[in-house]
Specification:
- It is built from one helix and ten strands; from the N terminus they run E-E-E-E-E-E-E-E-H-E-E.
- The chain is mostly beta strands.
- The protein has a single domain, classed as Carboxypeptidase-like, regulatory domain (Immunoglobulin-like, Sandwich), CATH 2.60.40.1120.
- The longest helix has 6 residues, at 82-87.
């Protein structure tokens, strides 16, 4: 099994939850400063996040068995810009592949298990 870790750093909006989608299925909703570890089959997967009417561009990951990839979600200045609000809301949130484990308190970790097929 492979693992996709998606985490959200501390930041505004604090009470709104970022929804995490893998291959089109919603797997989690992350409040500020939290993470989800998603166990899935090896292969190609598409990850996307959304918050209200805004979303990230999709990120494709190709995972081998027992491989882990870490993605960071940020609601940055682009989300509050004219383009992020009106012109390209489907690319307003940042979702980036990063190295190393996220520094999220263990109490703020969720787990999800998805199977494809």
């Amino acid at each position: 099994m492979a693992t996709i870790t998606v985490y959200r750093e501390y930041g505004a909006p604090l009470v709104a939850r970022v929804k995490v989608f893998v291959d089109g299925s919603r797997v989690a909703a992350l409040p500020s400063e939290s993470r989800v570890d998603i166990t899935t089959d090896e292969g190609r997967h598409t990850v996307r996040v959304s918050l209200a009417w805004q979303a990230s561009a999709p990120v494709d990951v190709l995972l081998a068995a027992d491989e882990r990839v870490t993605l960071r979600v940020r609601v940055g200045s682009r989300a509050n810009s004219f383009a992020g609000i009106f012109r390209r809301p489907h690319e307003a949130l940042d979702l980036d592949v990063v190295g190393g484990p996220p520094r999220i308190p263990p109490a703020r970790v969720q787990n999800a298990d998805i199977r494809i097929g």
